[in-house]
Design goal:
SAM-dependent_MTases_sf, 50% helix, nicotianamine synthase activity, single chain, Rossmann fold
């Protein structure tokens, strides 16, 4: 078996690989990925593996093991389908609630999205301190939580930051511009009619203005222009391979204004079990954007963040 010596030298590798393969087998055998105790438990187990701090050498050996390489595309697909089902479930639960805003904050990963959005805003302002006026989010899904967090953190003077009483961190965020008021408008883009329909109703029930939070049923290739947007986000599930992600990026930047920012969600290390990673160092990426910031949080936040500025096309 390739890499047998490495497996013997690091006794943690074999049990981890065995656990991943078992989770994949059990998920694949399920008839439905709608949230349930069994589905939730399996993905919690997978997330525990993804977020466990381990040396880079070990994670590389695990992810390059032929058995993991073989099942990884299917595992990514299962994670994608499960995330869609989870967002559908929570979207309906929040929409149907007598207090949608309170129910929203009960969402399992709400604080993760808050932290990720703060991280992304800090990365954006590290490159450009100008107020953000227009944002497009491609791959917004049934529960557009990033857009909702952006709206709160940028438009509502960082209400969540004030409530958390973060002291010195609050001062840093204010200095960076994350607490200043603006008139940001956000366009949520998804190719799923179900996602667009349900998220539109959700946002209405949350009391967010349809002038500030808009929706478009479209794929990236069908978009006519993105020139009015200061920042365009690409969700982690946009493109299932590096080649697909590069293709989408090329299409997107060709419709954006030179100098505008692109935020691309990726993953690092074992988090690659949940989402396909994005390599920002390739020639294809360099032809599209000048990468300015890359952040791997190394916390409970799953996604890494790549922020680049659209460059002139040759």
């Amino acid at each position: 078996m390739p890499g047998t010596d490495a497996l013997i030298m690091d006794p943690e590798i074999v049990p981890t690989i065995t656990a991943i393969l078992s989770i994949h087998t059990r998920l694949f055998a399920l008839q439905s990925l709608v949230p349930s105790p069994e589905v939730n438990g399996l993905f919690e187990d997978l997330m525990t593996i993804c977020l466990r701090p381990i040396p880079n050498a070990r994670s590389s050996r695990i992810l390059s093991d032929p058995r993991i390489v073989e099942i990884l595309p299917a595992l990514h697909q299962l994670c994608s389908l499960s995330e869609f089902e989870m967002e559908k479930y929570w979207c309906k639960r929040i929409t149907d609630s007598s207090n949608p805003n309170e129910e929203l904050r009960k969402f399992t990963y709400f604080e993760n999205y808050v932290d990720l959005t703060r991280l992304e805003l800090a990365a954006i302002y590290a490159l450009d301190t100008n107020p953000i006026n227009n944002v497009a989010f491609i791959g917004s899904g049934p529960l557009p939580l990033t857009s909702i967090c952006l709206m709160e953190q940028v438009n509502e003077t960082a209400e969540l930051t004030r409530k958390a009483n973060l002291g010195f961190t609050s001062w840093i965020l204010e200095t960076l511009g994350l607490t200043r008021k603006s008139k940001v408008k956000i366009l949520n883009i998804d190719h799923s009619p179900e996602a667009i329909k349900s998220s539109t109703v959700l946002v209405h029930n949350l009391g967010i203005s349809s002038v500030k939070m808009m929706f478009s049923l479209s794929s990236a290739s069908d978009l006519t222009s993105l020139k009015e947007y200061d920042v365009v986000f690409l969700a982690a599930l946009v493109g299932s391979t590096q080649e697909e992600k590069e293709k989408v990026l090329g299409v997107i930047v060709s419709k954006m204004t030179i100098g505008a920012l692109v935020v691309i969600r990726s993953v690092a290390g074992m988090r690659g079990l949940c989402y396909p990673a994005f390599d920002a160092t390739t020639e294809a990426v360099a032809a599209c954007i000048d990468v300015g910031v890359t952040v791997d949080p190394g916390t409970r936040v799953v996604n890494s963040v790549v922020v680049g500025r659209v460059r002139a096309r040759e």
